[in-house]
Amino acid sequence: MSNIYEDISIEKKVFGLYKIWSKIQNEYPNKQKLEHIGWDNLVIQYSNIVSKTRSIKEYYIELMRFVSSINDGHTNVVPPWGFVLPRTTNPPFEVNIIHNKFIITAVGDLEEMSANSLSIGTEILEIDNLDVKECFREINSIYARGSNQANNIINMFYLLSGEIGSTLNLKIKNDDNVEDISMIRKANRPFVHSLTNWDPAITFN
Q: What pLDDT score does 185 carry?
């Protein structure tokens, strides 16, 4: 795999975009759906977007967002890194949407969890100073699964993920108590997310 943080020429980016557009335009069975989302106009819009990307990583994310506009749960772009970016990890807990709130529903057996007021039932309000719902909408625009139910189950895996060694800032709520916490993502801790055998983890400041 090429270094995904390197860049490629604008010509290659636009060529790749139109190659995807053409394949879907010619082979996608539901032509009415392509007309409904403005497939012809969308490729023009994204030719400008992909031209401004600064790395292979950014380029593929925009290709994924472009194809996700179809939102059928089947048509997608798989980037060079597969389904998980290299050197990416998750915190030692899981979040699910309950009554339109982002709630911790599973935790690892770590003393740091209780030390940082994180437990089953804790609500996540913000991630890195952004509203958690807006963060999740951004994820769904890249990894559209065809239904809200599929998005909520599968894409939750990406909500808190990030590069190993990076800092994750959260605003959380327990009962009526709201507080800010920070944590450093770190690999090789004993917690396995239910959607993968990959072993994500976090240590807390």
A: 86
